[in-house]
Amino acid sequence: MQELPLPHVHSGKVRDIYAVGDDKLLMVTSDRLSAFDVVMAEPIPNKGRVLTAMTAFWFELFDGMVGSHLLSTDLADLPAEVRDLPDLAGRVMLCRRAEMLPVECIVRGYLSGSAWKEYKKAGTMHGAPLPAGLLESSQLPRAVFTPSTKAAVGIHDENISFAAAADLVGAELAGHLRDMSLALYSRGAAWARERGIIIADTKFEFGRIPETGELVLCDEVLTPDSSRFWPAAQWTPGKTPPSFDKQPVRDYLETLDWDKTPPPPPLPRAVVEATSTRYVEAYERITGRRFVDWPGVR
Questions:
Q1: What is the mean pLDDT of the chain?
Q2: How far apart (Å, rounded) are the C-alpha atoms in residues 66 and 63?
Q3: What's the rounded Cα separation, in Å, for the pair 219 and 268?
Q4: Cβ–Cβ contacts within 10 Å for residue 280, how many?
Q5: pLDDT below 70 — which residues of the chain?
Q6: Nearest to residue 227, comparing CAs of 210, 246, 214, 208?
Q7: Which terminus of the chain has fewer CB atoms gathered within 10 Å of its CB, N or C?
Q8: How far apart are CA 143 and CA 47, in angstroms?
Q9: Each residue of 198-238: pLDDT tens digit?
Q10: Peptide bond just before 263 cis, omega within 30 deg
Q11: Spatial distance between the Cα atoms of 40 and 75, rounded to a whole number of angstroms
Q12: Does an H or E element contain 218, and which?
């Protein structure tokens, strides 16, 4: 992605953020992909547009449940100096600037990832006991809010207790974040399940609009990068289902003698194409929309 003629605010592994005046941000989602915390050299075609399109869809579906920082994904609404630049169509979000809260709002509906590792070791998840006899990928008796801290770039987020989250943001706000995160996950997971996809877990981020104090949902929402998406037809407790994300890349890298530090090894074309296909399929199955109709897709 090219640098834009706007004040640069931040660049992450996938997104570049620019200031638009004093109260707006322009988020540009690239096709970059990271695996094992290393950004690959090869972009994944259309990945940035999938993440943008899917986030816009969920903001639309959640309208009335929670406020949003998203203003527009239309190039016509961007500042004149950038709206005609190439390759921006379909990968931009013009947003209200929000003061982000220092808590990652994670919701888990299934036992996987770091939660499974902790359960195997101690029978707990974030320190709280779980029923005995659960298997990897088991559905939890009910979805659970498991917050984490926001770590600096290059450092892993740290799982924390609800009490620790309350210490960070206050007990009342922590309770509201928990309840809202669980409600959004429940709505999204039910929608996806009806379309053959399990959302095993996800991460939400919230912020406040400085001028009004309004609490809003921010950043990406229920995408393959912020969530575990599994095909429901291939889910069996005791096994790890394939996922609608960078799984082909991770699987390939695991076959190599690579120490998972930069520089990354080159990715074969077939792995890049398979990964792009998975992202697009996740979008189309969940939204019921054709990806080719999204701006910028060729």
A1: 94
A2: 6
A3: 30
A4: 22
A5: 1, 151-156
A6: 246
A7: C
A8: 28
A9: 999 999 999 999 999 999 999 999 999 999 999 999 999 99
A10: yes
A11: 28
A12: strand 215-218
